[in-house]
Amino acid sequence: MALQQQVEQLQQEIDSKRQEIRSDGYSMSIGEWISLYEDGEIEIHPEFQRFFRWSSYQKTSLIESLLLGIPIPPIFVSQREDGVWDVVDGLQRISTIYEFIGKLRGENNELKPALTLEKTKYLPALKGKKWEDESDPENSFTQAQRLLIKRSKIAVTILQKESDEMAKYELFQRLNTGGSIATPQEIRNCILVMYNREMHHWMRELSQYEMFQACLSLSDRSLEEQYDMELLLRFLVFRTIDKSELRGIGDIGVFLTDKMVEMAKQKDYNYEKESKAFKSTFDILFNKTGSNTFRKYVPQKDRFSGGFLVSAFEVIALGVGYNYKQLQNSDVDVEKLVKHIWTDTQYPSWSGGGTDAKARIPKLIPLGREIFKV
Question: Fewer beta carbons below 10 Å: N end or C end of the chain?
Answer without folding.
Answer: N
